[in-house]
Amino acid sequence: MLSRLQPNEIAKIRTIFCDHIVFKSISEACLSCCERPKVYPLCQEQVFVEVCFLLDELKQNQKDVQWRNLFRNIRQDYHLQNTAVPDTELDCIALTIVSTLASILAVSYPVMYHELAELLFLQTVKVKSVVPQDALDNLMNGIEKYGTTIAHWLKDYMDSDDFISDKITSYIAPPQTVKGTYIRFTKTATIEQQAEFTSLLNRIITEKKSKGKAADIRYHLNKYKSDDIIEISGTEKDIYDELVALWGYNQQYNTFMAAEPKLIRKRD
């Protein structure tokens, strides 16, 4: 799962994506389902972000075995983040996210997406009782209401080189460190430059995960620092210690190995 959105991040998502067709449809469709969990409240913005990252995973790998166990994986991820969440709420959260993604795929054009939608819906059959039927009907009908527009958007999006998760990451996960050591944007860094830098870091660790390549992050840090896009505080050792904690370090090749990135869902 993705890290739970903080109040300021929820506000950012709501403001930035208010006119996005996927956000608009989810905001209307998922309200009833999102109101169910009480111990671990679920908001429409969290569902939107989860679905967008899943769409980007689908964009990169449409045949991965992860789709067969998506409900179980999401449920387990939320359980690990907060073990106090009751089983019924875990079922409700996973049901809401999986059903939303399935409903979006069900209104799309390619037949292979319809098949995947059916596979996802089947994973939720045994737990449907945790959500009132009218809430599920509202979810699916709410997505279907924008079906044609969503289908056009999804087709163009899947054919493009864009990744909506990169844009989201640039707003909800700026690069930062701890204990007084930080990597932060300068006051003159534009939104585009911030998004470019954050996307670059996310891409580095994602490519390491998929291609097994190590990345020497020092070059990129020095480049963006010299271009007055980022500021770095702390000694070189402090910066390296923090990056090691985040990504891991390969002593043999003197490069950062990029362990599981924070915003990429861990799968079996």
Summed over residues and divided by their number, the pLDDT gives a mean of 78
Q: What ranges have pLDDT less than 50 throughout 5 or more consecutive residues?
A: 249-268
Global structural class: mainly alpha
Number of domains: 2
Major β-sheet profile: 2 strands, antiparallel
Radius of gyration: 19 Å
Please state how the strands of the largest beta sheet are arranged side by side: 1-2
Shape: globular
**Record field, number of beta strands:** 4
Element-by-element helix/strand order: HHHHHHHHHHEHHEHEE
Q: Roughly what fraction of the amino acids lie in strands?
A: under 5%
Number of helices: 13
Instruction: Determine the fraction of residues in helical runs and give it as a percent range.
Output: 55-70%
Span of the ends, CA to CA = 13 Å
Structure in words:
There is one protein chain. The chain is mainly α and 268 residues long. Helix content is 61%, strand content 4%. The chain folds into 2 domains: 153 residues, no CATH class; 84 residues, no CATH class. It is built from 13 helices and 4 strands. A hairpin with a 4-residue loop joins strand 3 and strand 4. The relative contact order is 0.12.
Please describe the structure with a list of short key phrases separated by commas or semicolons:
268 residues, mainly alpha, two-stranded antiparallel ribbon, 13 helices
